[in-house]
Amino acid sequence: MSLEPIEPEAALELFLKDKEAELADASIKGHDYRLRHFVRWCHEQGIENLNTLTGRQLHEYRLWRRDDGDLNKVSEKTQMDSLRSFVRWLEAVDGVEQDLSEKVLSPTITADENSRDVMLDSEQAASVLSHLEKYEYAGPQHVALTLMWHTMMRVGGVHAMDVDDYNADEQYMKVRHRPDTDTPIKNKGDGERLVALSDDICELLDDWLENKRPDTTDDHGREPLLASREGRLQKTTLRMYVYRWTRPCAHGEECPHDRDPDDCEATVRDAASKCPSSVSPHAIRRGSITHSLNSDMPDRVVSDRANVSPKVIEQHYDRRTEQERMEQRRDYLDNL
């Protein structure tokens, strides 16, 4: 077989372009993010033509990336699985030797290791939301975090909301997949649903819409529910809100890491994620789901509301202890 020379950067661009027809935007961005590290490593190693790539070099990259990114097993597997997909594509376009993808080694992980344990528990959530209600009432940060906690929505779902998706009279929100106007949601059409809202949440949304929401539209003429003067709030902004307000010091608690706020790197603007106690939006979702299960909300109701299967809830979201599960079962027995 005659290989055709191809540079790492050019190969990555072609790979991503080719995958656009079969993968969701989020998957494309994930591959792009992970494989940029491989391109960076190739530049550092002086590899200008992927035709010369060997199994030993792939193993050297794995060790380098593990140390460079301080990766745990789950993250390392994700990184290497993306690389294997990339090398397999290179085989198809005569960019590397055939079967080289079989030499991309990836750690084996158990179901427990594949489940992420980080979550915002109900006490932390109450502290954060209470602080926001007192000091940032009906502002975009208060509204965003309240919706994430009380609706169990993914950050993409909150980002996709329009003003018209909120029905104040009947107290619900519509979750809709609108990729043509830049607001896709996970699970696409299968993720569309109606989400019931409580009196308190409706009151908060009403106050936001009446008093603080900027009168603005996005690039497609839609009226985003969560907006700034520039238009729809970006998902990166929503994530930043979560990292910022889940730092203990941000909502009036002492730092559990014995850091001085004046010197702490996590107090610098846009660096809140460096706080060991701050969490991502997914941790809010996991905590909200666990809180709902602990509050005796039926599994089927949680599944439908959060748009996630019972099996996935059990493996990835449910953080009830064995004792908590047993006590809940006891309550049912007492009522027989």
Automatic annotation (TrEMBL):
Coiled coil: none annotated. InterPro entries: CB (IPR044068), DNA_brk_join_enz (IPR011010), Integrase-like_cat_sf (IPR013762), Integrase_catalytic (IPR002104), Integrase_recombinase_N (IPR010998), Integrase_SAM-like_N (IPR004107), Tyrosine_recombinase_XerCD (IPR050090). Residues 313-336 have a biased composition (Basic and acidic residues). Residues 115-330 form the Tyr recombinase domain. GO terms for biological process: DNA integration; DNA recombination. One of its GO terms (molecular function) is DNA binding. It comes from the Archaea. Residues 272-336 are annotated as: Disordered. Pfam families: Phage_int_SAM_1, Phage_integrase. Keywords: DNA integration, DNA recombination, DNA-binding. Residues 6-91 form the Core-binding (CB) domain. PANTHER family: INTEGRASE_RECOMBINASE PROTEIN MJ0367-RELATED, PHAGE INTEGRASE-RELATED. This is Site-specific recombinase XerD.
